[in-house]
Amino acid sequence: MNNLSERLNHALKIAGITQSELARRIGIKQQSINQICSGKSARSRYTTQIADAINVNSHWLATGEGAIGMGLNNLESGPAIQGKIPLINWVQAGCWAQIRKGFTSDDAEEWREYTGKVNEGCFALRVKGDSMENPNGKKSIPEGALVIVDPDMEYHSGSFVVARLENATEATLKQFVSDGNHQFLKPLNPQYPAIPINDNCTIVGVVKQAIIEF
User: Fold this and answer.
1) Is the terminal CB of the chain with fewer CB neighbours within 10 Å at N or C?
2) pTM (2 decimals)?
3) 63-66-68-69 Cα dihedral, nearest 10 degrees
4) What DSSP string runs through 96-121?
């Protein structure tokens, strides 16, 4: 299989997943998947998300090198586990800077295995509510997804962040937006308003990855 179109069609056939189902899983339009499957798009910025959604090796999907992997017909094992991070609640996230040094294994709801690079202090959260669920088919983080958060990563306008507003007991997940002298926490769901922020907000950490579980 010499191109992305052939590899994706092959993986979809084995996995028993339709183009529309794949598009739904990663939050994009079906036409975008069809462009790849028909060979009209030789590359895609969604390759990693597609691979995760259909449980195949992203390197194989992008390049054709290596094994198809990640459980299809049990041909290959998945990527190596690099470590574990704590899954915490939103109250703990709001005060993570204060509790992270004394955090113990018993303080976490559970410990999640992680295949990417894990920095000290990273943690996971399970998304609540639909404020980051985008109905327009672009980036979307639905309720129930896991987000991996790095408290030491620098953020900029457009970053997805976990933040705590003054007088709030829980942290919140939003997109950080800076526009001139104004800053906001912006939900992806247009039904919710952006929240103006200044010194009343603490950025707890930056979202490195969102994982949608089925």
Assistant:
1) C
2) 0.62
3) -130
4) HHHHSTT--GGGSSEEEEESS---TT
